[in-house]
Amino acid sequence: MVDFLKYIKAVGTGPRHNRDLSKEESFDAMNQILRGNVPNEIIGAFLLGWRVKSETAGEFIGAVEAFDSFIKKCEIPNSIELGYPYDGKNDNPYLFTLIASFLEKFEINLVLCGDNLDHAKSGLTVKEVCDNTKLKENIFYFNRDEIFPALSKLNSIRENLQIRTSLNSIEKLTGFASSEVGILGAFHKPFVDKYIQIYKNRYKKFAVIKGSEGSLEIFGKCKIWICKGEQIEELTIDPADFGVTYQKSWEKITMEESLEMIGNPSDELLKLAKLNTAVILYIYSDNFKSIEEVFALL
After folding, report:
1. What's CA 52's distance to the chain center, in Å?
2. Could you tell me if 208 and 192 are in contact, meaning their C-beta atoms sit under 8 angstroms apart?
3. Among 44, 45, 55, 50, which residue's Cα sits nearest to residue 158?
4. Of 17, 40, 204, 217, which one's alpha carbon is 20 to 30 angstroms from that of 96?
5. 3-state DSSP call for residue 138?
6. Contact in structure between 16 and 48 (CB atoms under 8 Å)
7. How far apart are CA 104 and CA 209, in angstroms?
8. In degrees rounded to 5, what are phi and psi of residue 207?
9. Is 283 in contact with 266 (CB distance < 8 Å)?
């Protein structure tokens, strides 16, 4: 524990004396935390300090590399890992069940992971949806406490803090299913650049979608960044250009309302799901010249 205190001093001694951790230091700090070698109050202090200091891409990369040793990996072919936030959604239903229906004929699988963690937003979570819905055969859902128990064990600490920490940014994609394609959402533009640095070499293709509520799902006009190696394609998507007039909610919806919306979708919600599918399929495949082409095919 004494060895860990140097990391507390690095991130938690104030603006004049804080310093960034090296990738190696971040790896070691996260490795110690996940091994259970650090007391809970020290973990909480570190997570708060790290968040307030503002994390670097190098620190994130070190922490994500430390994750690898603790994840129970599997291999799901022809799959896309969707990195949804663990704190849930408030304003709109999840679309992945509808997206999976469109992807069935392409024999593409969706991989998702969920957990009991909703401290920051207290929204409807992926876990709640998957636990209360009959999933398509091409949806592979995993509980995080089974594939990454070391991180799930930190849930109680994070719930007690009641605010977002640095882990919220890097827990969404872990590569546990050996998917060649990973997609996640971003709320703030500065994190897009960090995500690209973190994940561009961990997937054959990787994309960031600046979607609704920081999710990867598109409900309104947004930007998308698609990475293949060092190549980055930036796109702007406006549902109106595709004839989609779905009006997003501005009020919190209940789990029952959300499940009803995806169980008996309106025509406009189906069109929105179709657009999201076109975006995902365009990211996944090199066989299409544009999202418009995929949308027309669907």
Report:
1. 21
2. yes
3. 44
4. 204
5. coil
6. no
7. 22
8. -140, 145
9. no
Over its length of 298 residues, how does the chain's per-residue pLDDT go in tens digits?
668 999 999 999 888 899 999 999 999 999 999 999 999 999 999 999 999 999 999 999 999 999 999 999 999 999 999 999 998 888 889 999 999 999 999 999 999 999 987 665 567 899 999 999 999 999 999 999 999 999 999 999 998 988 889 999 999 999 999 999 999 999 878 889 999 999 999 999 999 999 777 789 999 999 999 999 889 999 999 999 999 998 876 778 888 999 999 999 999 999 999 999 999 999 999 999 999 999 999 9
Structural tokens at position 260: 């009803």
The type of residue at 32 is Q
Tokens standing for residue 242? 């595709």
What pTM, to 2 d.p., does this model score?
0.94
The length of the chain is 298
Residue whose structure tokens are 């082409």? 293
Where are the alpha helices (H) located in the chain, listed in sequence order? 5-12, 23-34, 40-53, 57-67, 96-103, 126-131, 144-147, 149-152, 155-161, 167-170, 189-199, 255-263, 267-284, 291-297
